[in-house]
Input
Amino acid sequence: MNVESLVRVEDKLYYNRYLVDIGHPHVKVRAHTTPSPQLLALLKACPARCYELNDDGQVEITVDGCIECGTCRVIAEPTGDIEWSHPRGGYGVQFKFG
Amino acid sequence: MIEERFDAIVVGAGMAGNAAALTMARRGMKVLQLERGEYPGSKNVQGAILYADMMEKLVPEFREEAPLERHLIEQRFWMMDDRSHVGMHYRSDDFNEERPNRYTIIRAQFDKWFSSKVREAGVTLLCETTVTELVRGERERIVGVRTDRRDGEIHADVVVLAEGVNGLLGTRAGLRARPRPDNVALAVKEMHFLPRETIEARFNLRGDEGVVIEAAGTISRGMTGMGFIYANKECISLGIGCLVADFQRTSQTPYGLLDQFKRHPSVAPLIAGSEVKEYSAHLIPEGGYKSIPQLYGEGWVVVGDAAQLNNAVHREGSNLAMTSGRIAAEAIGLVKSRGEPMSAANLSIYKKMLDDSFVIKDLKKYKDLPPLMHTQSQNFFLTYPQLISKAMQNFVRVDGTPKAEKEKATLKSFVRARSWTGLFGDACRFARAWR
Output
């Protein structure tokens, strides 16, 4: 049985409180035609499943649910595949418990 | 934005940043602290256990004031396979002492309180402010920070980098390397809410007594990692973490592991019927002694997780953060009291003081363990837990097989899985790294 297919990360993200900075994504994916192994690794490693493949087979990011752990930075910033910054002051996830 | 000049700027309002800011303010320094979250703690994630001794050195009266959850009277270590766990429990009434040694806490709430003490001491705190860059002056000296506020450049004699494991400033400025996939773990955590009485009944607790469960084994699917379950007053912190390099290598998902851990027959009854109220994730520095970066330079010091100060073997982090923050502040205070500049030569006293503390001594003791665990993860986190579980079942199940035959079968299974030289080598390597 494939456990992953049963876990809906979106439902988990609904527990959290976010202040989304519309129009200012703090993480960007570099334009590419074929994704690097590092970018492909993010599809699985990101705990908020922010990274997904689009119809053309490229890796895209939606930062709205990002929990700002930095895993994607550790994996894919050195190769230049992504640009990582912290959200602007006050924006992003706001943990109540942490 | 701010015209005035500060003695020190502290980046971050976590354990390390708060300890540093508080200590400097109490020594009469003019301190500005910058925090990117809405309030202190809103970006901070930890298991979380608070070590009283290190907190007491900063706020002696914290037990009366701070939002604490439960004082720990019991520690359980579980080695798990898919259906069982072999456990070692230590429970002692000695921990029901007047000044308990360890507590579970909820970081967002605790940090808010800790920060109130920091502000009482006279620190200026600016929240919702992301520091984007360190500002350099003559001879590459750090003279301040740039923030995302308008006209957001602020100057100070020294900058304390308490920016956490994923701090960007120090790495962008070339002061230290970026964390690598093989020296940080990714942990995911959920907060499970249940009535107080239910938690106390399920964990065998009275009043504010608490329990910690640390679990390793097949739950990490052969990766270097651990699960944890901490009892709070009205909720349970439950999570699991593995090395980022292992996630990258195996294509396992963090939430898949968490879900499997929750559904394990030893875990599921503890959280049955709970309401989840938060899902978080955080990196944990796991590289140990060998991954500690340069700790000071011209006009700056780095403390806490940003300096990789974390004892993965004992799962201690926040106390190393608090202690390094306090010691850095004391070192800065010494330099200032002599009226000398915050140069690298003068700030080197921070490293000397830290070397003399438990922080570096402990990390040095285990300097060889992280590489051993990381290269032998299949053996330590998959093979051995399965073998040990099988051996235990063999030992306790009564089925008419003579005991000698059972023992022979158990031994055989170990040798078959790891070979005599493998078993001997693992034992020696482990002993040497632990020593």
Observations:
- The longest strand of chain B covers residues 275-285.
- The first helix of chain B runs from residue 15 to 26.
- The mean pLDDT of chain B is 95.
